[in-house]
């Protein structure tokens, strides 16, 4: 399989792109989202792959840092709550997490902490503490879902408010279809997750195929094959929860909601629910955060 090489913003990394260009005939919905030239030379490029696993590790940490800065800009932080984890590409059963009690908007790539399967900090990353509840949640989700490379969780205001109803979101908007058929509900809040049982219950709510779950009286959680996907889906779910709350307020005053019918929602979902698309959806914000930080987020 031939590859096309491009230079990363971070000059030490040279990612190659999947496919020729990516996903030639295996990701047609992704290619259908944009139009290039008549000869089909201009194509969308999705998730990069790496020949060097250490370059991939650095790329993961950079994109994690950007995801946290994005969460900070959106106001998803609340004290020490909220965490993102990503599987390490080199060490089996290890993953990267954010340091405990560091504001999302300050996080850089070098701040990421590497932990083992028992949640203990190991060499190779920042020597800092992590959130215990975060490990209990993320470790169980990673264990139950080997397809989930990244897991994102925060106590965003609209997500946690809607979670108080213990109900899934409705397909009120086209954007909500990013999550059609992919949102579970963890309907029994067990308090702060300082035991594995709560993490397992959250993993069960995600099931085998969901990319998101609403955690009753708690917040939201999303999964992705990249941290970019997990971050974008978290944002998409938060936006859907805000729309839902607004719609419920209007409906309480007699305004009838119009739900997108199944066939239309499924068609939209089939068009957008690909890892390449959700990775790409985050790239405008990634580029903006790199520019706004003067590249410091990559350090």
From TrEMBL:
Pfam families: Aldolase_II
Annotated region (Disordered), positions in chain: 1-21
GO CC, any one term: cytoskeleton
Sequence ranges assigned to domain Class II aldolase/adducin N-terminal in this UniProt record: 62-245
InterPro entries with a match to the protein in the record: Aldolase-II_Adducin_sf (IPR051017), Aldolase_II/adducin_N (IPR001303), Aldolase_II/adducin_N_sf (IPR036409)
Coiled coil: none
Organism domain of life: Eukaryota
A GO molecular-function descriptor: actin filament binding
Name of this protein: Class II aldolase/adducin N-terminal domain-containing protein
Protein species of origin: Penicillium olsonii
């Amino acid at each position: 399989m031939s590859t096309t090489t491009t230079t990363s913003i971070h000059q030490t990394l040279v990612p190659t792109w999947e496919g020729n260009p990516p996903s030639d005939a295996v990701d047609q919905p992704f290619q259908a989202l944009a139009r290039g030239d008549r000869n089909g030379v201009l194509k969308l490029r999705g998730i990069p792959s790496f020949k060097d696993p250490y370059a991939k590790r650095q790329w993961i940490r950079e994109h994690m840092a950007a995801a946290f800065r994005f969460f900070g800009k959106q106001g998803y932080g609340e004290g020490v709550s909220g965490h993102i984890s990503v599987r390490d590409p080199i060490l089996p059963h290890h993953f990267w997490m954010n340091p405990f009690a560091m504001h999302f908007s300050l996080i850089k790539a070098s701040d990421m902490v590497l932990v083992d399967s028992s949640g203990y900090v190991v060499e190779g990353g920042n020597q800092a503490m992590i959130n215990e509840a975060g490990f209990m949640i993320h470790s169980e989700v990673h264990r139950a879902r080997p397809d989930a490379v990244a897991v994102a969780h925060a106590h965003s205001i609209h997500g946690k408010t809607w979670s108080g109803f213990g109900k899934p979101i409705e397909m009120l908007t086209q954007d909500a279809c990013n999550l059609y058929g992919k949102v579970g509900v963890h309907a029994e809040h067990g308090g702060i997750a300082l035991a594995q049982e709560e993490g397992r219950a959250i993993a069960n709510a995600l099931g085998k195929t969901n990319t998101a779950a609403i955690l009753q009286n708690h917040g939201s959680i999303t999964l992705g094959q990249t941290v970019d996907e997990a971050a974008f889906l978290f944002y998409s779910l938060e936006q859907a929860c805000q729309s839902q709350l607004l719609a419920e307020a209007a409906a309480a005053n007699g305004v009838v909601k119009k739900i997108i019918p199944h066939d239309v929602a499924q068609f939209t979902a089939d068009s957008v629910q690909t890892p390449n698309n959700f990775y790409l959806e985050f790239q405008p914000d990634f580029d903006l955060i790199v520019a706004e930080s003067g590249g410091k987020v990559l350090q």
